[in-house]
Amino acid sequence: MKQFAALVSILGTSTKTNDKLEALSNYFSTANDADKVWVIALFSGRRPKRVVNASLLQQWCIELTQLPVWLFEESYHTVGDLAETIALLLPQTTGNDGNDAQPLHTYLTQLVKLEKETETVKKEYIVTCWMQMTKDERFVFNKLLTGGFRVGVSQKTIVNALAQAVQLPAAVIAHRISGNWDPSTTAFQSLLSEEHASLDSSKPYPFYLAYPLEANPQTLGEPAEWQAEWKWDGIRGQLIKRNNELFVWSRGEELMTDKFPEYNDLNTLLPDGTVLDGEIIPGIDGQPLPFALLQTRIGRKNVTRKQLQEAPINFFAYDLLEYNHEDWRPKSLTERRQQLEQVVNGAQHPALLLSTIVPFDTWEQLAATRRQARDHFAEGLMLKRKSSSYQVGRKVGDWWKWKIDPFTIDAVMIYAQKGHGRRSNLYTDYTFAVRDGDKLVSFTKAYSGLTDKEFNEVDAFVKRHAIEKFGPVRTVKPELVFEIAFEGIVASNRHKSGVALRFPRISRWRKDKKPDEINTLDDLKQMLRLYGTAGGEQT
Fold first, then answer.
1. Beta pairing partners, 502
2. CATH code of the region 407-531
3. Third-level CATH fold of 2-146
4. Pick from 199, 78, 204, 92: which is nearest to 137 by CA?
């Protein structure tokens, strides 16, 4: 744990990718093999289930420190992170040294076993660990306990660090650490072996990601060299048919087969050894529907007949990664598309559709088409070089996403709360309101989009102008105006405003505007009428 805590400290404080890469590479070159497997799992989202809730951790810490509850809560509000608060408040120790020090995998394996144990057993183990750890080790341990383990390092950096340590190509590493594997039972050498990859019929390929196109598309060259498609607003996924089994993976490496029974019949219709890349989106009669309808299906263990009828899910296929058990990624997009069309047309299934190629002869013509994206429930266009292979991760040059401009609304900040991680001492999480007559109505929260300097300015304003205090939340004078950008809007009966926004963020601080110049609730409802959907319970 000591070595892992040191690694997390470097990754959490460094702002340079090369420093993070070096730290990870050194770790993978020197750490215990079982620890390496768990680190790969943790950094790729395979965290163990929470074995104890936050209130119990808080209670046990209060018992150990004998602090008044109000003082613990005040400390928590100041720090802004439960794991760090507990690590700071517990009596300081020197930790275990030498032969007494426990490796990371020992703790994680024990946490998995604790899931079905009684509260007494859990408390005894966790308290014992706390009293044997240093502050930094406790912080990491607590993050694992609370399920809040997040490190600012990309999957690409993890893959490149592993590639340096084990001398394998990064693309090979990315594929072998994907899929359905258990860090409790998988050995490091086995995980990275070709044999292990071939034994997992469900294993997806690493996704190829596009770069945002911010320049004029004319800089890309001749239009004839490019294929244009709609950029669908759904869940990126892979549909896999191997060994007469069907699997559906999301880009976030979540196995989602059971969530979409519409695809079940494809197990008998698709050729064996086929992997399709595409978008999971609701649709009827081949026409995409708003993303809000898909959200009604996400997270549900059991899908009802009513939900199947109201939000039928399609798979809009736009690439072929494997055919007849052969890896087709090195082939050109043109070759892959031709074979993809044969596969989809051969299946003849209403839930499996081809993503439409958008025809164009000039960039000006395509720009005009792009402006119609919202009419197709799309976010813009994808531009793909016809000669391109299917690569790994986000690469510059061959795949671009040309998104339409977001919606924007001017609003005033009315509440503020401290952030997390490196922003835990600053007020960086804000609630915004629009005008409704002579009242202010809250309608969204946002915590990204400002520079560090601007966050510091807003933090100073909150500390000077806070009116009321509700736990960690501060009511502030409604004086600061911000432009809020968002990708979509739906009706919501869970919000006072009656609407909910998709991907809200701060686009700029409107220091040129006064609070009485912000938008109104009627403006939001007009957007809802023109571009929104009836989401009902959407958040």
1. 488
2. 2.40.50.140
3. DNA ligase i, domain 1 (1.10.3260)
4. 92
